[in-house]
Amino acid sequence: MPQLIAGNWKMHCLAAEAVALAQGIAAGAQGIAAELLVCPTALHLAAVAEALHGSSVAVGGQNCHQAPQGAHTGDIAAPMLRDLGATWVILGHSERRLNHGETDELVREKTVAAVEAGLTPIVCVGETTDQRAGGAETEAVGWQLAGSLPKPFTGVLAYEPVWAIGTGKTATEEDVAIMHGFIREELVRQFGDLGQAIRILYGGSVKPANAGSLLAVANVGGALVGGSSLDPREFLAIARAAQAG
Ligand code: PEP
Questions:
Q1: How many CB atoms lie within 10 A of CB 243?
Q2: Cα distance between residue 94 and residue 3, in whole Å
Q3: What is the rounded CA–CA span in Å between residue 205 and residue 127?
Q4: Could you say which DSSP state residue 119 is in?
Q5: DSSP 8-state class, residue 88
Q6: Alpha carbon distance 205, 238 (integer Å)
Q7: Residue 61 and residue 80: Cα distance in Å, rounded?
Q8: Dist CA 85 CA 119 (whole Å)
Q9: Count of alpha carbons within 13 Å of 71, Cβ hemisphere only?
Q10: Which of 206, 229, 238 has most ligand 1 atoms within 8 Å of CB, for mutation?
Q11: At what angle do helices 45-52 and 15-27 cross, to 10 degrees?
Q12: Catalytic residue among 44, 65, 93, 180
């Protein structure tokens, strides 16, 4: 399976900028063996999906509600994302867990809702600075894996140490090898043989300069990219460093 390089555009770009960014990425995507995905704000999904039409770049949401519809002011349902052209959705990103109090149980419910709507979820896990400083990083990620994934799970995992997101600090290849190995063991324990095939992305200050070495680590199935996904040259350089599988 090819590696997946996913861009999380977070709360960046006005509409015209998002379309230009999507066009820039689509223009350079030919010949790249990795699977490519961009996740703009939901407001720009339709425009970005249109800009990417006919290219090899998929589009996804950054969050969804756990209900398919209803009285939830300001929220966005998974079928609405699908309706606008999304085929993926990021769930349980640490910024949502920390800023919006999202629990493992809620992430699990959202994951079920996403799959029911025909979206492939990317479920994020990762330890905080304090958890790592206290030597509790695998325990923390273990709890998140146990609580956030429905059975069966048809999606992708993203390991994103919170201390590495947007900080310029990257986990070492050894850190990544240990954690991705642990996650693989947990996925196999929870899902049997199916757990072997689940892609595990690394996220946290992935840049063109470190992408090649991080993407070559065992059990790394791609990257979830924040800051560097906002520049087509950087995002495409990361994608070119990915493995065809
Ligand atoms: C992210 O937010 O998912 C992320 C990995 O951000 P950055 O690449 O900027 O660290």
A1: 15
A2: 22
A3: 15
A4: P
A5: E
A6: 11
A7: 10
A8: 10
A9: 0
A10: 206
A11: 30
A12: 93
Whole-model pTM above 0.85? yes
**Residue bearing the CA closest to ligand 1, atom 1:** 226
Residues 6+ apart with CB under 8 A from 193: none
**Residues with Cβ < 8 Å from 134, sequence gap 6 or more?**
none
Phi, psi of 97 (to 5 degrees): -65, -40
CA distance 15 to 47: 8
Among 116, 215, 226, 120, residue whose Cα is nearest residue 169: 226
**What's the 201 CA to ligand 1 centre distance in angstroms?**
12
How far is Cα 62 from Cα 83, in angstroms, rounded to an integer? 15
Q: Which domains does the chain have, with CATH numbers?
A: 8-66+75-170+225-240 (3.20.20.70)
Q: What is the pLDDT along the chain (245 residues), one digit of tens a residue?
A: 999 999 999 999 999 999 999 999 999 999 999 999 999 999 999 999 999 999 999 999 999 999 999 999 999 999 999 999 999 999 999 999 999 999 999 999 999 999 999 999 999 999 999 999 999 999 999 999 999 999 999 999 999 999 999 998 999 999 999 999 999 999 999 999 999 999 999 999 999 999 999 999 999 999 999 999 999 999 999 999 997 66
Q: Which of 70, 75, 66, 71 is nearest to 106 (CA)?
A: 66
Residue 139 one-letter amino acid: E
Q: Is 44 annotated in the active site? A: no
